[in-house]
Amino acid sequence: MTAFLLFLVAAWAGAQNALAGGGSFLILPTLMFAGLDARAANITSCVALFPAQIATGWTGRALASGAGGLSLRMLFALSIFGGAVGAVILLITPAHLFARLVPWLVLFATAVFVWGSFFRKNGDSAKNVGPFGAGLAQLLISIYGGYFGGGIGFLMVAALTLAGASARVASATKNVLAGVMNASAVMIFLFSPDLHWHEAAATSLGAIIGGVLGARALHRINEKLLRILVATIGALLTIGLFYKAW
User: Fold this and answer.
1) Which of 51, 141, 217, 221 is the most exposed, fewest CB within 10 Å of its CB?
2) pLDDT band at 142, cuts 50/70/90?
3) Does the predicted TM-score (pTM) go above 0.70?
């Protein structure tokens, strides 16, 4: 029953990621409900979602490009390095401390999601971020992605557009880089005792199926309503996690 529940939630989360983002808001608490502590749930979620991220990035790879004077190869390298650093930091973070940090991380991710969904305009690009700024932003985002990951899509789109990329290119590039940064984290997490393989398998299968269905339904769903739902889930989850932690 636990595996079936994880599959159903992951299928919805996969579709949600394809349509609007924020699927991790559903998967993380479901894994915690299944008995995993916060750190184990985060590690298992990262590994489980990796195949779907690779599929998404590969599909749109033709539009991916460099930004801010940096080549895609350089952004690629920064993402791999940053993701590995974030993963190592997570593994050395005590489980009880990470459990205390999770509400704040979810709050931050929710705030980023709300800003990216409702307040940020596609034209809000100053295009004044040079190679150093673009590289530093991608490195910091990658470290955060390897450590937690919630909201990295909106953070990367914002950084890439500020570096001069169009919204369409920024979206395709962030899909590629998200898979890249998680690749290094996943390679580290595979050796962690906190990775729960059965839960990861059920979650991964559901996320892949949901992602495919979500992509096909992209033009038939009211995206604004879905984004409102995601923001509401994030807000309620934040309140619940703060209540539980404190």
Assistant:
1) 217
2) very high
3) yes
